[in-house]
Amino acid sequence: MKDSYHHGNLRNALIEAGLKIINESGEDALSLRKVAAACGVSHAAPYAHFADKESLIEAIKKKVTDDFTEELERSVHAPGVTNSVEAILSMGEAYIMFFRNKPDYFNFLFNKQKIQVHTDMTKEYEDDYPPFLLFRNLIKKFFEENHVELPADQQEIMLLKTWSAVQGLSSIASMEGVEVKTPWEVLARECIKGGE
Amino acid sequence: MKDSYHHGNLRNALIEAGLKIINESGEDALSLRKVAAACGVSHAAPYAHFADKESLIEAIKKKVTDDFTEELERSVHAPGVTNSVEAILSMGEAYIMFFRNKPDYFNFLFNKQKIQVHTDMTKEYEDDYPPFLLFRNLIKKFFEENHVELPADQQEIMLLKTWSAVQGLSSIASMEGVEVKTPWEVLARECIKGGE
DNA sequence: TGATAAACTTTACACTGTCAAGATTCATTT
DNA sequence: AAATGAATCTTGACAGTGTAAAGTTTATCA
């Protein structure tokens, strides 16, 4: 992979190596020099691809967010998901289980991350935070399927009711020291219920 | 405050100075040497009071958590809080507004913090995470006031339903780039409703 | 082929956490 | 009151860090 002066794919290699370090030793253990060394490259080489350490971390966050988003998308195509209510429950469960399985990702993803979100359901906002966009579209679909006509502020409340339940249980599920009797999959669905 | 070789109250001064730096410049800007300098003390002096940087940060976290807990306790004594439902709503609102007013505290408090929590309502767990304890006791009070007799797993679900709504809206309220039309105080109450 | 840009290395510097050894003060006992 | 040991603080050192500057190698393209 490193047979010449030029690495060839250093940018991606740095992201990959960085993610590996974070997975194995936590975000604190991430240093530009270690990442560079892991790619067999000098300690200043990353600066050809990233302005600073923060930029590399942001790129890693983007990759994790992409994986996360893909997992959410897959969840609505699971067997048994035939209507929008089940889709919301299935995606909410996937959301929560993602962070239950990778507890450190919760803070890693949401810390210092500017997350653009619009709760207005009448327009399209392509640049909004993708996981949120998926939820927003599902709620919208739910309204359409069930011919629900609510005033804008009630729609906003319903949207945030669902998202906060999911976000909150994810936060709790990612905490060390929290032991619950009920399986997280069941808790997920129970906590989301009531909004719709 | 520093008129002799011995500082006299260095431990608290370090915590205070550290918190000030975090409030003004963020957690990343916190360094032991800066904290020491702010207290007019040599760079290695903190090691007489804290094992390492992490220990100081933990002490700062404890202080912020104590303030947070006090604010929650105050909220249930607000005028208009006459029953347990209103108490839950009032405390939930206070919880969320705390993080809305100090967005950076959300990640600061919950990141890498081992938070002990028991959802079993039949026993007392004094060492549990204090803000959670307050919630648990309010839910318990609600059951007693309304003579609700639910099986243990249903009680657990109700508890986590409430806490996840509060925790989730706090997480969302602490995000940069999230703009909502409804006031957060209203959202708070709306999101908590439905559990009880 | 030659010029220009991109990718990478080397060197350097300031800042960081932490350790070890020493200096000063406090507290307690005698 | 004097002495002794513990607590507190200083000084000096070291390895690891992010990052800037200047130089070297390779790729690209006219």
Describe this structure in words.
The structure is a homodimer of 196-residue chains. With 196 residues, chain A is mostly helical. Chain A has 2 domains: 2-50, Orthogonal Bundle (Arc Repressor Mutant, subunit A); 62-195, Tetracycline Repressor, domain 2, CATH 1.10.357. Helices cover 61% and strands 5% of the residues of chain A. The longest helix of chain A has 23 residues, at 53-75. Chain A binds chain B through residues 107, 110-120, 129, 152-153, 156-157, 160-161, 163-172, 175-182, 187, 190-191, 194-195, and chain B through 107, 110-120, 129, 152-153, 156-157, 160-161, 163-172, 175-182, 187, 190-191, 194-195.
Quick structural gist:
Chain A has 196 residues and is mostly helical. Chain A has helices spanning 10-25, 32-38, 53-75, 84-101, 103-110, 130-145, 152-173, 184-192; strands spanning 114-118, 176-179. The first copy, chain A, has two domains: 2-50, Arc Repressor Mutant, subunit A, CATH 1.10.10; 62-195, Tetracycline Repressor, domain 2 (Orthogonal Bundle).
Please name the defining characteristics of this protein:
homodimer; 196 residues; mainly alpha; Arc Repressor Mutant, subunit A; Tetracycline Repressor, domain 2; 8 helices; elongated; DNA-binding
Topology, element by element:
Two copies of one chain form a homodimer.
Chain A: H1 10-25, H2 32-38, H3 53-75, H4 84-101, H5 103-110, E1 114-118, H6 130-145, H7 152-173, E2 176-179, H8 184-192
Chain A binds a DNA duplex (30 and 30 nucleotides) through loops.
Secondary-structure-based class of chain A equals mainly alpha
Largest sheet of chain A: none
Strand and helix order of chain A: HHHHHEHHEH
What form of chain A results from the Cα inertia axes? elongated
CATH topology of the largest domain in chain A: Tetracycline Repressor, domain 2
Number of helices of chain A: 8
CATH architecture of the largest domain in chain A: Orthogonal Bundle
Poorly predicted segments of chain A = none
Give the proportion of residues in helices of chain A: 55-70%
